[in-house]
């Protein structure tokens, strides 16, 4: 794939993302790539996120848990620029990304998946996947159209397709490659969404309940894969309601309750924390 | 899925074959009716030329709209405004410099036609940019409101006496106000042939045409040749938009149409893509407007009423939004059946029954039908008002389509948004000769890793 990415043209610069000089692997310059400070967001009367403050350590799989309506998805939306916070800041790789556009944040390597999988329904699985990779030459209109240069676009399309196919096979959705995404089952949509997010080559992935509806054996495989990527330095923030999964896989857990961080720590700490038990089992504290 | 789909799949030559077949059937129908009713050859040829003209302009406009609506989901109902700006700016650049005492009230800059055409397209694209910048950030329906308002503002601007005439580079230029603008530049066909040094040959050809049309064949030949020229441009639009759609650029447009947030959170600057797509479509609409009017001798602002916009929409809906082939077919079917059809039908009735006098109002038309079941007066009355009824018919067709086939002729067909075939077979082949799939996990990881380092080298 290196031909694709080390494309000699000027697109990389044109993106303006000016990636902080990295020679290989994800950006690991920051010890805590993601820092969220005093994030607050209200919708009319409801304060969905109420001063959430936490940070995610580089190369970890960090869990974000909390009861329904705790503000987990809203926090994701605030981090990724889909919503603008009322107050508070989001820092990614030592850069203040508060209020940036979602595409700018994604191009900095912080990519999210949606809780309710959002597929591009009238596009096939392959089209969905081919959309994701960055630095596609053919995203420049003139390159796609002009006779002389279109060849380079086609060449890159072939390379991308090859890579897309490998990821599809890994996620075990290659048999539905030509299917329209709108026809997929709930679990298949989740898989497609995660595969697609991975194809953007993120440094850090925010996964909003990625395993909901995914069969157990595949869930295991995906977790194995996540651990492999994590070992290479990628960072994950995972929202999940399955406590066993969180306890077995995360090295750090953040508990969100009513828009605030109730507590955080290792799975063992969390397990023994009475507040957490109360928040999950006893409703309102 | 349907008969039509099967037809498209079985058609030799694929989509191009389908388009040619539809055109041939249309022409054959027109010619047959004309022959059956004893039209002169000249009349037949003129009918064909006019039909081709409208097929050409509507196909071009439907293709441009398909880029906006079918590909990007941009709801543009101000098409006619972009056409108007294209034509008027072209006229401003191309009309000869004002000379006192000449026929024209105002002049132009006297530049070559091609310069005027490029300027007209650029002006339409710029207007698109101005319209799009504020509206694209808002919800989709705001673009609709802004575009239709813009098209009326454009029309009223060209109507206004303030722009009727003004000075530019020391020349008296202007847009002529409500009385319109005489397009007194060299005949475009002549300019075209002269520019390639074939004007003499063309005149020779016209002369030879006397064998078919003995008296004054030039208008007939001009019409036919211009129609052919328009069809060539339909092909050019088709080619351009097909390449646009079948590319990573088109893929992002399609994703924007489906769910802009998703495209955005995958790192695509969707506003950029929307603006580019919108401007390209607007330029193509401006060019189509120029082609529609540059041979008409004059242009008035009231030609550019919103109904033209709705004609284009009907053409696209008939053909099927999302499909370029469908757009061409929709343009052709709209032009032949809904736009020119009723007029042709009226001409036929007038020719066959020249003596029949139509009642002048609805009362005398309906009375005989009720009192002694005589439908003739009602029939003639209907035929006589066919231009007014045309809009009613279009409305009925639209309602019928919406209920029974909202995807139009080919809208159900999804044209792949990639430069290569996106099939499992193709992908599998690529994967097996490119690398091993068995270690996909590591490959994916490596890919991700290399991507992080794309700034060096
Ligand atoms: N766009 C919105 N408009 C109004 N209220 C909203 C909006 N988005 C979220 N909320 C409210 O904010 C609160 C937090 O919602 P959020 O989706 O963040 O919860 P969550 O922690 O992700 O819950 P779950 O585990 O069920 O997914 C809820 O009370 C929800 O009703
Ligand atoms: Mg949620």
Q: What this model shows, in words?
A:
The complex is a heterodimer of chains A (285) and B (457). Chain A is built from twelve helices and ten strands. Chain A is an alpha/beta fold and 285 residues long. Chain A has two domains: 30-119 and 187-285, Rossmann fold (3-Layer(aba) Sandwich); 121-183, no CATH class. Chain A has a six-stranded mixed sheet with strand order 6-7-8-3-9-10, with helices on both faces. A four-stranded antiparallel sheet of chain A has the order 2-1-4-5, with helices on one face. Chain B folds into two domains: 7-339; 416-457, no CATH class. In chain B, 69% of the residues lie in helices and 2% in strands. Chain B has 19 helices and four strands. Chain B has helices spanning 3-10, 14-36, 41-71, 79-94, 113-136, 140-159, 188-195, 199-208, 218-245, 248-265, 270-293, 306-319, 324-339, 341-352, 362-372, 376-384, 386-404, 424-434, 440-452; strands at residues 166-168, 171-173, 181-182, 298-299. The radius of gyration of chain B is 26 Å and the shape is globular. Bound molecules: adenosine-5'-triphosphate (ATP) and magnesium ion. Magnesium ion is lined by residues 72-73, 115, 208 of chain A.
Descriptive terms for the model:
heterodimer, A: 285 residues, alpha/beta, Rossmann fold, 2 domains, six-stranded mixed β-sheet, four-stranded antiparallel β-sheet, 10 strands, disordered N terminus, B: 457 residues, mainly alpha, two-stranded antiparallel sheet, 4 strands, 69% helix, disordered C terminus, binds adenosine-5'-triphosphate, binds magnesium ion
